[in-house]
Specification:
Length: about 170
C-alpha cells in the first residue's frame, strides 16, 4: 500500500492556515466551508460498497468488504488532508508563511502586468471598456484551454478578442 502524507493531519485541526484570504472573517468562513466539503467528500469516496450480510454473501465478498472498509478508514484522514491541502490549507505555520510570500509576489507581478498593459492600451481607462476587458479576462481564465497562461498573456488575448469582435 502506498501512503501519501501531506504535512500535519488536518482532520481534527481547529486552526488552519491559508494565505488566500486577507480578511480573518473571510478566512474563518472559508475554513468552515472547506472543512465541511472535504468531510463530505471523504464520506462519499470511502472506497468500498457496503455488502448486505444476510448470509447470502460468500466469505470472499465479506472479507473483501471488511478489507476495503479498513483501508477506507485508514485512508479517510489522508483523503481529507489532501482535499484541504488542495484548497490551500495547512496546519504548518512555516508552509503558511511561504504561501503568504508566494501570494504577495504573485500580486506584485499581477499589478505590474496590469500596469504595463494599461500603459500600452490607454483605451481601457474608459470604464465601459475596462469592464469589457475584465469580463473577457475572467472568461479566458475560466477556459481550461488557457490553463498556465500568465495574466499578461490573458490581457493580450482579451484585447485581441475584443478587437476581433468589433471588426466588421
Amino acid at each position: 500500500m502506498l501512503a501519501l502524507s501531506v504535512g500535519l493531519p488536518l482532520i481534527d485541526c481547529t486552526r488552519g492556515y491559508t494565505a488566500r484570504y486577507d480578511d480573518t472573517k473571510e478566512q474563518e468562513r472559508h475554513l468552515k466551508l472547506d472543512k465541511s466539503e472535504c468531510k463530505s467528500y471523504t464520506s462519499s469516496n470511502s472506497g468500498y460498497v457496503q455488502i448486505d450480510h444476510n448470509g447470502n454473501q460468500g466469505g470472499f465478498a465479506n472479507g473483501w468488504n471488511t478489507g476495503m472498509a479498513l483501508a477506507a478508514a485508514a485512508n479517510k484522514s489522508d483523503l481529507y488532508d489532501i482535499c484541504m491541502n488542495k484548497r490551500g490549507w495547512t496546519t504548518d505555520e512555516d508552509e503558511f508563511l511561504q504561501q503568504k510570500d508566494e501570494i504577495a509576489k504573485a500580486k506584485l507581478a499581477a499589478k505590474k502586468d496590469v500596469s504595463d498593459f494599461m500603459a500600452a492600451h490607454p483605451e481601457y481607462k474608459d470604464t465601459a471598456r475596462h469592464d469589457r476587458l475584465s469580463i473577457e479576462v475572467f472568461s479566458l481564465m475560466n477556459d481550461p484551454m488557457n490553463k498556465g497562461l500568465t495574466l499578461s498573456q490573458l490581457l493580450i488575448l482579451a484585447d485581441e478578442r475584443i478587437k476581433t469582435l468589433k471588426a466588421p
